[in-house]
Hints:
2 domains, three-stranded antiparallel beta sheet, 10% helix, 39% strand
Amino acid sequence: MSDYPYSTKEFYTALDRKELTGSTCTHCGHKVVPAREICPKCKINGMEITTFSGKGKLAAYSVIFVPPTHMVEAGHSSKNPYCVGIVELEEGPRVAAQILDVDLENPKNITIGKPLTMTIIERGEEENRRNYLAFK
């Protein structure tokens, strides 16, 4: 059993504090989001928790017109699409998240390289309320 102090729960706890966390390899310096115990680059077990700035740029995106169930519950549909993207953080790693404040009626106007800043989307009711990573 691992003694690595990080899990998905800690990732969402950090989001509750409006922080984006991941890990940095103490051997090769590779950075990842979310945190991992073993470096995906050099395969060394030597990662430490890192808090990222939450700033980056849009690397890729897709506008979703046929959402999964949890996004239907959030109000999305073919008539109310949403955008997901890959954001390259200033510190280097890439992370997938919902992209807000983009022109969904004219997706060709969404620009790769657009500067983005992390934000939080709250979904759910009372004890089922949860924060999700997004960028705008």
